[in-house]
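Supplementary Note 3. Input sequence used for the single-chain structure prediction.
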Amino acid sequence: MNAKGYGRRIALALALAAAFVLAARTDVLVAAWRELAGLIGIQGEPVFASPAFISGHEVQEIETLGPQEQAERLLERAINHYDGAAALIASSVDGWRGKIAMEGRLNGLFMTALNANDLRVRAAGLELYLAAYDIGKTPEDLDKMMARCDRQADGRPHELFVVGLLGNRGVDPRRALDYLLRWAADPDVETRKWGVEGIAMLGTDDAIAPLLRAFHDDPDAAIRERAGCGLAQSGMLTGAQRFTAIPELLRFADDPALDDKTHAWVFQALQDISGKRLGYDVRDWRDWWATEPQPPEGEAR
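The predicted structure, written as discrete structure tokens, is reproduced below.
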């Protein structure tokens, strides 16, 4: 091989060596480049853009909007934990009654609010839902909703959901629960499901036992799943309320009468309620429970 051939081989070898070094150092180089360029990554601690509160300037802007746009803006801010947003919703929602529609962007924000990790955000969503459907918060409004539910099957899912919402907002919660319990035992699967959803939205101490019963006993898997979700994460129960369900969930985890799918949901509920990741062996969960753990975020048991 001539000198020119050797030269090409050496050049190729050097190029390959440089490529391997560069690949090995890519993470370091990218991090350094990001630091120099001032780019914000998506991992690590939060990097706040500005204090999370509704400014006077934004309040003035919101006041120029129509009710629908006001509700959308403030619910979005509440979801993002802006101080003042929930208070503005509370002070404005009665004036929006019948003037906003649960559709489009507001409906999407409502669904997001229902999954927020702050129950105050969920409550703001419930208030907007009632306002959008022009439903008041009086015993008479509860009576009307129950009568409508009794009278016609077509709107029953919505009406059972609203009964739960009204009970949660302080309108005869015990009577709301008694009514929902009736429909949660209905032969129709869809009706039972929405009875269970309404109970989860109620969020009272008395709602826990019926949810546990539906989770364990209902013959329909979809209803068992919704009851488990209502106990674990969805609906309006507080973390401390959910924590009280753990002893019964531990009994479910050991119950041979439950199928594999429901057993898996039981362990998922235990994880969601406790914040622990102890797997699918009930002995590990019993050992943890024996140490007398505290509810998440310091809530009283």
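The chain has a mean pLDDT of 87. The chain has two domains: 56-132, 139-298.
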